[in-house]
Design a protein that fits this description.
This protein is of the alpha/beta class. The chain has one domain: Alpha-Beta Barrel (TIM Barrel). Helix content is 49%, strand content 13%. The chain contains 15 helices and ten strands. The protein has an eight-stranded parallel beta barrel with strand order 1-2-3-6-7-8-9-10, surrounded by six helices. Strands 4-5 form a two-stranded antiparallel sheet.
């Protein structure tokens, strides 16, 4: 493995502990403006400093990520089908290696669909992408997609898909967690990173993370289980505590709850700072409303003031 390729891999997977927290925000390439990712810039900005790398398309990278922030980019380069189309497996390479270099990507990502109608095309695409990427020292992440057939997420199918991806030259594989996940990891000769999958309750998502890491996963590539949470920043920090801090589920969940209880304070206090001055005048009208029934005394006060002004 060349120095450049090793160096780029080290940006994504920490070379000290062999672990990674990747933030996935590439969902729009086939789902469109999915919930909580309608405005990618707002979703991504507060999470950037807590992820090791960011997985996304070139369009969202250019429009929604600050170029001054040094986050490693895992660039999705495959696509061509949508959630309302006939078959999600009908993908091709949509972004060139030259474009990835122009965008300073640290790795490329594409989906393979083992057992699907367009299995052959996706696997040949992977082989060709690895050929082109290795010429310039770019690692490739193969995503073992299942399309709309979520029932395929078992150890037998996923170990098959991951092994095939590695055999075709992928340097990393992203797949789903399942029972007997140790089999998936042990039969794949490259690092395995788990997908977050559909949105789960926060504690269950942390259990998923812990079990995957315990079973040998090199890290997580989570999206919806982070940015669809009511508290995305506490959630990604709790996930990070498991992946990089060796926390168990209880410790990570307690951290999540603690950060959630703290997080509203800095958000509300700035908006409350101007309010105290506004509360004082609001108390005065209340006093006036109490005096409104006593209109006669008020008129008398006004009459007393007028003569004083006239004498001056």
């Amino acid at each position: 493995m060349d120095w450049g390729l090793k160096n780029r891999l080290a940006r994504i997977i920490n070379p000290i502990n062999g672990k990674a927290v990747m933030l996935a925000v590439d969902h729009g390439y086939f789902l469109g403006p999915t919930e909580s990712l309608e405005v990618p810039r707002k979703t991504v900005r507060p999470l950037l400093k807590y992820c090791d790398s960011l997985m996304l398309t070139r369009g969202v990278l250019r429009t929604s990520v600050d170029a001054n922030f040094p986050v490693p980019i895992v660039l999705r380069v495959s696509g061509g089908s949508s959630i309302i189309g006939e078959d999600l497996s009908n993908e091709k390479i949509t972004t060139s290696v030259k474009e990835a270099i122009r965008l300073n990507a640290s790795a490329l990502a594409m989906s393979i669909f083992v057992g699907a109608k367009y299995e052959h095309n996706s696997l040949v695409n992977l082989g060709n992408l690895v050929n082109d990427a290795e010429e310039v020292g770019l690692p490739v992440l193969a995503v073992t997609a299942v399309g709309k057939e979520l029932e395929k997420r078992d150890a037998r199918y996923l170990s098959l898909s991951c092994r095939i991806a590695a055999e075709f030259g992928a340097h990393m594989v992203k797949t789903y967690y399942c029972e007997n996940f140790e089999k998936v990891v042990s039969t794949c000769p490259v690092p395995v990173i788990i997908a977050g999958g559909p949105k789960l309750e926060e504690r269950k998502a942390l259990e998923l993370t812990f079990n995957a890491i315990k079973s040998g996963a090199a890290g997580v590539d989570m999206g919806r289980n982070i940015w669809q949470s009511k508290y995305p920043v506490p959630m990604i920090r709790a996930v990070r505590a498991i992946v990089h801090g060796n926390s168990n589920v209880e410790q990570a969940y307690e951290l999540f709850k603690k950060l959630c209880s703290e997080r509203p304070a800095p958000q509300t206090t700035p908006s409350q700072q101007p309010r105290p001055p506004q509360q004082k005048p609001t108390s005065q009208p209340k006093q006036n409303t109490q005096q409104r029934p006593q209109q006669k005394p008020q008129k008398q006060v006004q009459q007393k003031i007028k003569p004083k002004i006239q004498t001056k």
